[in-house]
Amino acid sequence: MKAYDIVIVGAGPAGVSAALYSHRSGLDILVVSRHDSALLPAGKIENYYGLGRSATGREIVDNGLAQLRALQIPMIDAEVTQIQEGFTIFTTVGPLQAKSVILATGRKRNKVDIPGLEALVGSGVSYCAVCDGFFYKNKAVGVIGEGAYAAEEADFLKKFASTVTIFTNGKEFIGPVPDGVAVNRSILVKAEKQDHHLTLFLEAGQMPLDGLFVAVGTASSAEFAMKLGIMTENGAIKVDRNMATNVPGFFAAGDCTGGLMQIVTAASEGAVAATSALRYVKAQNKS
Ligand SMILES: Cc1cc2nc3c(=O)[nH]c(=O)nc-3n(C[C@H](O)[C@H](O)[C@H](O)COP(=O)(O)OP(=O)(O)OC[C@H]3O[C@@H](n4cnc5c(N)ncnc54)[C@H](O)[C@@H]3O)c2cc1C
Q1: Domain limits at 69?
Q2: Which of 61, 105, 220, 239 to mutate to test the pocket of ligand 1 (most atoms within 8 A of CB)?
């Protein structure tokens, strides 16, 4: 089984940044990724430092991967299915060994099975209020969800939108509803957009909206972590300021650690995780 000093799982902003900050160390680094960053459906990115003209999410992801290739940083296209103590990393192309792991797998966003909805992501439908809420100033927005995550998104959207309605899709809403936010418990039938107008079809009637945010359940890219006994909180991996988890040698960066969940934080955390992992491996090699 091939052994590495550091294996980075994920090639979104956090994983690529971790790779860029570790490749000159002289240590044996590998990036393992499936290449399906949360950024891919993002239409335009306007809030990343120095980007100038807005770029699409796909352009940013492709540029990141091109950077890795240009620097000849070893990378394999595979899915990690399990990580065991020590560390053994099971992938769809075979197992690997690593002294240290940087988990940068993003955050799985739970999808809802409503006809027409996924096709409208980036065009009226969003999975991220912090990213896209600003575009709905004085507009009517909906949030699909039934718990704390949906309440959080709705509360954030209140700052911009004229009205915010949470659609529970037939479920009971769990927990407090933010002031000024309406709750609609109808079953959702389909979403459609015609002439720039989004319509949410309910079991009884329909609702015209300007934007619709999906915030169903809680995201859980923390499954690997849980199996290793790594502490999590609300589905996010708990890390200290060095991006270290409670398991020595295991670091995490980006959306999987929760927080602001933006490119800027993912890139920054990736860099910090890399420097911490390098320090850890060098200390291990000395002892
Ligand atoms: C629609 C939308 C719009 C957005 N707009 C903005 C914006 O305008 N500005 C902004 O700053 N942020 C925006 N974001 C947020 C931004 O996309 C994320 O914060 C950022 O991508 C997080 O980077 P990451 O590296 O942590 O995770 P990701 O970019 O999600 O990357 C995760 C990586 O891990 C890999 N991976 C996951 N699981 C496995 C596995 N089991 N095995 C192998 N590889 C795996 C994936 O293939 C991927 O390469 C937006 C997000 C969405 C969904």
Answers
A1: 3-108+219-286
A2: 105
Helix (H) or strand (E) segment spanning residue 285: helix 263-286
Q: Strand, coil or helix: what is 189? A: strand
**Cα–chain center distance at 273:** 17
Q: Which tens digit of pLDDT belongs to each residue from 110-159?
A: 678 899 999 998 889 987 787 788 899 999 999 999 886 788 789 989 99
Question: pTM of the entire structure?
Answer: 0.77
Question: In ligand 1, which atom is closest to the CA atom of 33?
Answer: 44
Nearest CA to ligand 1 atom 35: 10
Do 102 and 225 fall within a single domain?
Answer: yes
Would residue 39 count as lying in a domain? yes
Residue nearest to atom 48 of ligand 1 (CA): 37
Domain annotation covers residue 113:
no
Report the nearest atom of ligand 1 relative to the CA of 14.
25
Q: pLDDT per residue over 55-100, tens digit each?
A: 899 999 999 999 999 999 999 998 787 788 899 988 888 899 999 9
Q: List Cα–Cα distances, 228 to 29, 64, 99, 116, 276, in angstroms.
A: 21, 29, 15, 38, 19
How close is the Cα of 287 to the center of ligand 1, in Å?
36
Pocket, ligand 1, Cβ cutoff 6 A: 9-15, 32-39, 41-42, 45, 47-48, 79-80, 104-106, 122, 126-128, 131, 254-255, 261-264, 266
